[in-house]
Amino acid sequence: MATIKDVAAAAGVSTATVSRAFSNKNSVNNETRNRILEEARKLNFTPREYKQRSNSLGCGCIGVVVPDISNNFFAEVISGIESVMSKLNIQVLICNSDEDPGAEIKILDSLQAINVCGIIIAPVSNAVEYNAECLKNFDRSGIPVVLMDRDLRNGSMDGVFMDSYGGAYEATQTLINCGHKDIAFICGPLTSSSGLDRLNAFIAAHRDNGLEVHEEHIIYSDFKYETTYNLITQRIDQMNKVTAILSSNRRMTYGCCMALSENRIVIGRDISFISCGRPEIGHGFISYVDYPTYDMGSECAQILIEKAKRGKRNRTYARKRTTFDMEIILNGSEKYPSNR
């Protein structure tokens, strides 16, 4: 059975152009459209129909692209998005980029090919220019894009974010106030805006308190459980040199806690801990920085709807960028360990 890629190859165009030709988009000239239709006839290709349910936007579905579907943070944000979209009979297609820029661009191509009416995305990186330019082109061409949690360089697109810097700074300050001077920091990828913000906050809090940041106490991970578990296991001997750990996200918190537990290092007794993000089930005794994830998702959806209604009109409108404050929840694990 022929696919849209086969038609695109035969006609010498992109799959996106084939999709626009079959959806009668004016951006495809008659000569190109006729060539595509002729090649489709030869290949006996019938385009799949993505039926749009009736709603005020004339929109059938949107794409939501997250870097780690196993992270409950994103599941909670998606819940907020779906709560808004379901009321408008708009389907939500959830895609997982797995922190991979290559996978991310393939997802974006696929979403464009099926003619989604908008995209909400937590970009894998703010340093991959090709992916960033692709998102900007979508936005310019009439496929509205809203950034979620992670920003791109120059901050030129609509988005909903959390105060990553403020949360990490207050968490670090809390540990310092409890008497900690040797704090380990589990850092996310620095190509991620949230990862970089938290590292900068960690360093700034030390500087503001006249404390030295020990480079060997910064553990560079990738926001994932497996990598963090392995890193902590490899460096477990260094844990007796620190009195507290600050983790940059909840998946890395889980990986770290598992490694500590397997090596009989008890949080509260042997080491203190704060997590940026509510810990996974089973670690409810750990202090953490909390964010209104559901509200963030709802805000993303509202901004996307406003952009879809506006369409290509009034391109001079001010970008809407919302930042949610955090709240630090102290459960006792931040206190100086009793065994030290």
Mean of residue pLDDT values:
89
CATH structural fold name of the largest domain: Rossmann fold
Shape: elongated
Order of helices and strands: HHHEHEHEHEEHEHEHEHEEHEE
**Cα distance spanning the termini:** 68 Å
Strand content of the residues, in percent?
15-25%
Write down the domain tally: 3
- What value does the Rg take, in angstroms? 23 Å
Strand count, sense and barrel status of the largest sheet are:
6 strands, parallel
CATH architecture of the largest domain: 3-Layer(aba) Sandwich
Q: Ranges with pLDDT <50 over ≥5 residues?
A: 49-54
Strand order of the largest sheet: 2-1-3-4-5-11
Task: Tell me briefly what this model is.
By secondary structure, this protein is an alpha/beta fold. Helices cover about 40% and strands about 15% of the residues.
Question: Can you tag this structure with a few keywords?
Answer:
41% helix; elongated; 340 residues; 12 strands; alpha/beta; single chain; Rossmann fold; six-stranded mixed β-sheet; 3 domains; six-stranded parallel β-sheet
